[in-house]
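thought: fold this chain, then report.
action: predict
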Amino acid sequence: MNWSMNKLMELSTGYWRAGALIAAVDLDLFSVIGDDGVAAGEVARRLDVSERHVAALLTALAGMGLVRVRDAHYSLDPDAAPFLAPDGAMCLLDSLRFNKELYMLWGGLSETVRSGQPAIPPGAHLGMDPERTRRFVRGMHSRALGLAPDLLPALQMPSQGHLLDVASGPGTFSRLLAEQFPQLTVTQMDLPVVIKVARELTESSPAADRIRFLSGNYHETIMGGPYDAALFCGALHQETLAEAQQVVCRIVQAIRPGGRLTIADLMLDGGQPQPAFAALFGLTMMLTSPGGGVHSTDNVRDMLRAAGLNDIEVTVAGELPYRVLSGKVTGS
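observation:
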């Protein structure tokens, strides 16, 4: 890459854009401006904020292309509306709200590197604070809806039988699969505080009668089975390699011979520092977890082999930085 002063300045001030977006989400600004165009004074009145300051924020958002301005009236850009409007088809607002908490942590990255300790207590988003946990799980659901069009086809899940969704979080992916395949039954497994939110999200699903819940810790809880397939999506990065190997072996024991285990997560391609998003996500894990991190596809492939899986496939999930590895359980 040919570096220049301008490129370095853009990189060093990249948090300005993130900060403006997060502030807009935190203020609930996108629910106010809509499609029709609203003057800054009216936005200030509805949000009960400073007119001068919200006008500056709207101007910045317009400069970023998220907002359109015409005759001093602001409206949400049509291309951004599906993601930022509260009723958007792929609304990401819950996910972006949780990013506010991560945004604050990144200012302390140098201290985390110095100390080798996360910036928050381990598991802070997984039960220590019920409201924080709720925001985290709903944020994952919001993000999963946006990822689903590219990620679900890469999972190559069975269309029938019984699927175990380990560390299911909001259960978005396996719930969408159950809705797509009427002959598929799903068991979603996660911590009790997480399952509580997943149950709420499932209530309105047309597949609700085929979705079961198992509260527990995947390091200890008996998973039952045998299942026809298992999905371990978006949780591998919470574990060290040694811990992840133990978890994979436990999941394999719950799958019938000939069934498949599929792991999907942000991963690095072999020994390369790519995709860049995955490498940067590794820093997020340092800030929030004492032992988590982003693993490489080579390490995960070795992990599956060590657990006795064969026919291992590696798939890139569309244009996403996610990698999907799947293997068949051996045995008779």
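thought: worth noting. The longest helix spans residues 130-155.
final: tokens above.
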